[in-house]
Structures are given as C-alpha cells and as structure tokens.
Automatic annotation (TrEMBL):
The keyword Hydrolase does not apply. This is TetR/AcrR family transcriptional regulator. PROSITE patterns: HTH_TETR_2. Gene3D superfamilies: Tetracycline Repressor, domain 2 (1.10.357.10). Keywords: DNA-binding, Repressor, Transcription, Transcription regulation. It comes from Microbacterium awajiense. Residues 34-53 bind DNA. The keyword Transcription regulation applies. InterPro entries: BetI_C, Homeodomain-like_sf, HTH_TetR, Tet_transcr_reg_TetR-rel_C_sf. Residues 11-71 form the HTH tetR-type domain.
Amino acid sequence: MAQRGSYAKGVAKREEILTTALEVIAREGFRGASVKELADAVGLSQAGLLHYFDSKEELFAEILRKRDEVDSAAFGDVSDPSEITLADLERGYVQVVRHNADVAGLVQLFARLSVDAAEPQHPAHEYFIERGRTLRRMITGAVAQAQADGSVSDRVDADTIARLFQAVADGLQVQWMLEPDIDMAAAVEALFELVFAKEHDTDAAS
C-alpha cells in the first residue's frame, strides 16, 4: 500500500512539474527557463527535479507532450480523424497557431528540440515522429472526406496536402521567431483559402 501511495505521489509531482514548466517557459522563454528555474518553481533541487526524468532532454520532450495535451483539451480533442470535418480542422488549426503566438517560449522550445531530435537516439525523437504522424492523420482524414464528397479537388492526394500543411506551420514558427510581427494565424487561414477555395466557394453559394 505504501509503495502504491509513493507511486501516486510521484505521478502527481511529475504532473506538477510539467504544468509549472509550461507556465514558466511560456512566460520566461526557452532560454530564460533553465533547469534550475524550473526546479525552483516546484520547490526542488535540480537533481530532485531530474529524479522524475531520465535526462534534461526527456524533461523538455515531456513538457511538449504536456503542451499538446493542454492544447487538445482547450481546442478540442481531434484524435479521431473520422470525426473531423474540414471546417473543424481549419477552426482548430488556426486557433492553435494563434495561441502559439502567445507562448513564444514554448514555440522556441519546440523549434530547438525538433532539430536536435532528428538524431534517432535523442529522447524526443519518437515524440516528434508520432506527433507528426498524428497531425498528418488528422489532416488527411478531413481532406480525404472533402475530396470524396467532391467539395475539394483531388488533384493532390490528401497525404501530400497534410505534409504541406505541417511544413507550413513549422516553417511559419521559424519565420515568426525571426520576425515577430508576422501573423501566423492569418497566413494559415490564407493557406486554407488557397488550397480549399472550391469548398469555400461551395459554402458561400449555399
């Protein structure tokens, strides 16, 4: 019983660390949020903080997982591609991109870690692989449905469109970090208009 209670406390502390880290990094930025500052924020030493994670890199990967979990709860759980319409996709996608502009530190963390995680041995490698697959599966499902009902052209297959949307979103984040006056959400809305203009025209006509 004591062991079970200890395990539950460990899980709760880990969740506290991740939730607090999201707030600290969003507020202070990735460069300003050292392991020491994250540890201080939850009342632990640096060694005590890393006791809950295998490495600093794993800690940062888990922070991004937590961010995805929070975003999913805030903007709608889109884990089942069969239930997502193209309108749902656009609405949720634009909301998340707009929200990212308010959490610069987390965008910086995502961009930095995504480069480092290209190495297969990196603790965040599988996170980025799975995240990309999940995102593309979501987009592919909505686009394929729209193509099947004829509201969107099928000249480009849904999988390729999904990769293009992922590439644009990731690339926009890099541009925005260099030029903070860029409106990422507006750019994504424009992309939806360009790619899915036929559906938009159909909606307007109806």
